[in-house]
DNA sequence: ACATTTGATTACCCATGGGTAATAAATCGA
DNA sequence: TCGATTTATTACCCATGGGTAATCAAATGT
């Protein structure tokens, strides 16, 4: 990887080449996502994406099969973040209420980032039917996490008995909405928003 | 308007003609809205809209200046419903909490109808800058109604002191989200949903 | 050195769909 | 009855933008 003088070798190893390629894919993804969120999917041309990366449109096809593939990859990148948060909380300690609050904070924070925003700002109908099916399954996973920890909280006594499904709709709706109104240049820091939301959304649920 | 025999005259008055024209405009609006919600704005062609009305595309231009005008008119029709609900509640009796609950119910019900759904399912970036400005002003009105009645409730003692802005974000988000998940052929009636939501969303706010 | 693979470019294709004449038919007012 | 207006139709135009073919250059590895 580097010579004795500390310089990076100009002859990259196969490993390095794989990383380069992957980095380029990520760069395309981030640029496209940025544009999609700025202007809306249908107003973004692949020429724009390429231009912002200082390449030309056909070069994109070395990394993605088409425009919808890019859109789908963006969405999946966002979902991975959510899935990681869920797995992390699942693996950690705490009763139902504690876990629910943690998820509200993590998911809410995600909604203030481009990766998270695309989960709800993209229109389902812009995906192919196959992509839609996979996305639908992913959404179910997230919803299931909310519901299961609410149910767990009722079970362990940390949450007052209620309908987990409806509670999850309220909480999910409030959180997803953050992706619509929150501005990075606004007066409220993401952390302040989600702390407030975690309190507010569990106030009516907690048993204490 | 009609003869002594009860038959409608085949010679419509100017008044009748104006009504006919207006009815046609409405028909275009309803059909377009239906298609926009089914397939998404960018996947709907004006030919489709025309076809469903048994006319041809250029005929639409007798009633609307273009595709975005139709989209805008749909949005405004939805907003009028919201504005009416707000005015009705404003004119009626009740303290802050009562009015807030009434708005939650009415706005939530609206979100289960096509007219209401378009308020949040349409993408702002598909409108012209001028249209966007007007829409932005309308949205502010709705948000202001939520905030003002929360503030009024705090003032009159029916609602516990809190930040009306954040409370309105939570409530608005949960309600807008209804437009995304509620299906008419689903298990929950619109009325059942909003009754549940009205309770749930004011449980943490009420002083009692 | 040299054939091979990879990655990028230029130049092009072409379906789509919003929008516009030019025109015809129905309706109106007088 | 007859010109004027309204409303609809047929036949187009054409900018847009996703996607492809042919080609070129550069790194690869044997």
What features would you describe in this structure?
The structure is a homodimer of 208-residue chains. Chain A has 208 residues and is mainly α. Chain A folds into two domains: 8-64, Arc Repressor Mutant, subunit A (Orthogonal Bundle), CATH 1.10.10; 71-203, Tetracycline Repressor, domain 2. The first copy, chain A, contains nine helices and no strands. In chain A, helix 1 (14-39) packs across helix 2 (46-52). The longest helix of chain A is centred in the last third of the chain and has 28 residues, at 129-156. The first copy, chain A, starts with 13 loop residues before the first helix and ends in a 5-residue tail after the last helix. Residues 1-11 of chain A have low confidence and may be disordered. The structure holds a DNA duplex (30 and 30 nucleotides). Chains A, B: InterPro entries: Cro/C1-type_HTH (IPR001387), DNA-bd_HTH_TetR-type_CS (IPR023772), Homeodomain-like_sf (IPR009057), HTH-type_TetR-like_transc_reg (IPR050109), HTH_TetR (IPR001647), KstR2_TetR_C (IPR041490), Tet_transcr_reg_TetR-rel_C_sf (IPR036271). Chains A, B: Residues 1-23 are annotated as: Disordered. Chains A, B: It comes from Albimonas pacifica. Chains A, B: Residues 22-82 form the HTH tetR-type domain. Chains A, B: Residues 1-10 have a biased composition (Polar residues).
């Amino acid at each position: 990887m580097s010579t004795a003088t500390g310089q990076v070798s100009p002859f990259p190893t196969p490993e390095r080449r794989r990383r380069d390629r992957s980095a380029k894919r990520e760069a395309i993804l981030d640029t496209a996502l940025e544009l999609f969120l700025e202007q809306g999917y249908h107003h973004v041309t692949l020429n724009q994406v390429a231009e912002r990366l200082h390449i030309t449109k056909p070069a994109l096809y070395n990394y993605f099969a088409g425009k919808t593939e890019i859109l789908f990859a963006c969405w999946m990148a966002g979902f991975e973040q959510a899935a990681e948060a869920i797995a992390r909380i699942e693996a950690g300690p705490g009763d139902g209420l504690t876990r629910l609050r943690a998820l509200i904070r993590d998911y809410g924070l995600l909604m203030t980032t481009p990766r998270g925003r695309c989960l709800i700002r993209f229109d389902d109908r812009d995906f192919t039917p196959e992509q839609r099916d996979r996305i639908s399954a992913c959404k179910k996973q997230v919803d299931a996490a909310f519901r299961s920890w609410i149910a767990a909280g009722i079970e362990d006594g940390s949450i007052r008995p209620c309908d987990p499904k409806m509670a999850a709709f309220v909480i999910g709706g409030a959180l997803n909405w953050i992706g619509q109104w929150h501005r990075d240049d606004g007066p409220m820091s993401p952390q302040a928003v989600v702390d407030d939301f975690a309190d507010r959304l569990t106030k009516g649920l907690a048993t204490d």
